[in-house]
Amino acid sequence: MARTNSSSGSTAAEALDWLGHPVSCRDCPHEDIRQERLCDLGRTCVRDRRTRRIDRFFNANPGAADKYLNHPYFEARALAAKYATIFLLPPLLDDPEPDVRAMVARRLPVCRIMQLSFDPDRKVRMVVAQRVEGAALVSLLGDEDYWIRLEAVRRVPPDVLPIAMHDPDPQVRREVARRIKADALPGMMGDPDPLVRIAVAERLDPAKLAALVADEDLRVRYVVAERGDAAALVRLSEDPDPEVRSRAQSRYAQHQLES
Asked: Which among 50, 87, 223, 243 is least surrounded, fewest beta carbons within 10 Å?
């Protein structure tokens, strides 16, 4: 479904449908669109297998999208769902292709996509995690995929984050440490991942940082040297690492001058 124009013959020759057959304007079902020059062989065509070309077609002709929601090519369905009348989308919640379900999850009202919280495909659940709120979002803290849990901990209220303090993935726990309420941070000082402990040390009340002066990771101790109170600085002034030791001594000297 495209018109012949100034596009090169080689570009037109590259226009293949989803079954690998050459695309031709001769059997185009959108003669009106072709006559209005709203399609372009090899660049803007709903029958082409390339997603950019299909997307350009629907972008130029959104009114045609409703007719392609049941197309056998899943890319055509997914891109049609991007532009189609929203009231026609609910049946696609059960589409066999995750790309289609993900597109529908982006467009339907949140209350209509709750069932997709349990979708077998991570990309669909990610869209849900980016949109839902409340209990539905909290439930995703227990998702089997760390990618989904990470998105959830970025969006849930800080009051809920203690649930994820012991998540099996350190990247998720680091995000928890960045957002959790300060009074819950001491519970993460013993985290096995040093990057999590660094995130804790960067936010912990300076008066409580003394508990980390003997941390096995020098990066954690350096943060303590940057933020700790006088008691922590005294101890770190004898640290085995020269950079930690120097920073602690410098800050302690400055502290003494200001006292």
From this structure: 87
Whether residue 219 is contained in a domain is answered as no
Q: Are 197 and 189 in contact (CB under 8 A)?
A: yes
Whether residue 14 is predicted with pLDDT greater than 90 in this model: the reply is no
In a domain, 51, yes or no: yes
Predicted TM-score (pTM) of this structure = 0.85
Distance CA 115, CA 128 (A): 9
pLDDT of residue 7: 44
Cβ(18)–Cβ(75) below 8 Å:
yes
CA distance 41 to 30: 13
Beta-bridge partner residues of 16: 22
Q: Note the pLDDT tens digit of each residue in 145-196.
A: 999 999 999 999 999 999 999 999 999 999 999 999 999 999 999 999 999 9
φ, ψ for residue 41, nearest 5 deg: -55, 130
d(C-alpha 45, C-alpha 23), whole Å: 9
| 237: in domain | no
Number of folded domains that form the chain: 1
Residue 81 token pair: 């769902």
Q: How far apart are CA 126 and CA 145, in angstroms?
A: 10
Give the separation between CA 207 and CA 85, rounded to whole angstroms.
Answer: 58
Question: Per-residue pLDDT tens for 56-75?
Answer: 999 999 999 999 999 999 99
Q: Is residue 53 part of a domain?
A: yes
Domain that holds residue 45: 1-63
What whole-number distance in Å separates Cα of residue 143 and Cα of residue 123? 13
pLDDT of residue 190: 97
d(CA 243, CA 125): 45
